[in-house]
Amino acid sequence: MKEHRFLWKAFLYKEKIFLIVIVFILMLISMFYSFQQSIFSSPGYQQAYPNAGLEFFYSLFRIGTNPFIFILMMLVLPNIMSYDLLNMHQNHAVYPIETRLTRQRFYQEVYIKNMISSFLVVLCLQLGLLIVSHMMLAPIHFQSMTYPEGYYITTQLLCPNECLNLIFFLLLTSLGYALISGLLFSLQSNITNKYVYRCCGVIIGILLVLFPALIQGYLPYPDSAFIIQINNLVALGLEHVRENPFGLSHWSLYILCFLIYAGICYLCFQVLLKRRESHD
Fold it and tell me: How many domains does the chain have?
């Protein structure tokens, strides 16, 4: 029990809370700026469309038109636990714990803890944005509405019930970010510079957004490239740039993309374990 308490205590300190608070403040600044520059701040818009509050909240997560929230999320992910572990590893501070718990068990526990922590941090950040948006910008109402044909955005993405849809969106996007956090965790064996690793989430996140568009021309079925686009996990159905590949539903596309990334995470984590066992 002492080993476990020491293990988790090593990842909890005031500077990390300060970092998350700073990121949230930057998200709020981005949200207020986006609201002022959008149609949602136009006089009478919120009265004309009862779901204007939900429309605005979802629009914050559209990577193509509002990338700032996404960039800030990807900035915070490697700094929740992964950076600390890399730093502890390079300082040899984890060796006594690895000896008592075994290296494999130690990394497995930290890996799972990192994903759970990432899920909770992202969920709290999103809930914070939702509450501030509701209280200060555009009140959120759960009123199903019929949209005009060709309307540029709808709020019923996953199911016709607006309240359930919002719950699903918050949980699924938080789970998607947690999975990406697991991938970043596993890349420690490839990105060994601590200072580069701090901001590697932003670089990798942008690559995962752009990579499918870059390779689609080289594939027999170009649409298949977009199955692995990170938007499917963290901005499900919000981009409206193209139809889902192969006519997949939002649910099917999310599950398929999630399984692919889960497989990649597992393989990368096994490589991390093997390298730690071989070179330490």
Answer: 1
